[in-house]
Amino acid sequence: MKIFKTYFGILFLSLTVISCTNDINVSEAQLIKQIVETATDGSSITTSINYNSNKITSIDNTVKSSTFSYTGLLVTKIVELDKVTNHTTTLVLTYVDNDLVKITSSDNYVVNYVHNTDGTVSYEKWVKDASNIDVKVNHGVLYYAAANLIKEVTILDNTAANSVSTKTTTYGYDAKNNGLRNAAGFSVLLNYGNLVSKNNTISKTEIAEVKNTETDQITSSLNQSQNDYKYDAGGYPTEIVGEKTFFNEAHSNHAKTLFYY
Hints:
Number of helices: 0
CATH topology: Porin
Distance between the termini: 29 Å
Helix content: under 10%
Strand order of the largest sheet: 1-2-3-4-5-6-7-8-9-10-11-12-13-14-15-16
Structural class: mainly beta
Strand content: over 45%
């Protein structure tokens, strides 16, 4: 089977809201420049991450590219190109006091975020239907601890009237350095989910439930994944062995991910 596509799409998950200014000296910051995903059949795909100082300017491989525009240290626009379909999506990001509060997509959807006093972040996704009416697709809550996204609860709003669909995702982390953490403005991009957490994800558990509100019957499913890491002397990952690619795509033929700085 040919190597999988690496995905950079909106996932509506996120990270603790912290200041976009880094305490790390830009000249000393360790930043991932290249990611090589290798499959069990030996095929591979290389993703290049390009920077201006410590600002990400683009993430690019043979199937998809994302370009980033900034206002100061905040990412205010992301343009994503699917090289297979030649479809371009533009995301406009809005902030209040350095907190991401809204993402507006050229694909006719909007995601609104509310930063709660208890440190959680609530969100809602709205789309335009055929009649140009706003319809809520899903909503949920993001939970954080020690600058890591530890849980996300998502409730679907466009299901049948007699059912409630909920997905709960929990993450476990190591105590090492996320190789993208030093990138300016990246740690507040809620649409990149656990990828912008302070540490590296070593486990992920997804529980999906559908409850029939008339009978109270619940149907559920469980999906778990685990990652094994190797690190350099500075505590940054150099290799991941696991079921998922770095950008969270699950593939049965995924062998490992290699990082180059």
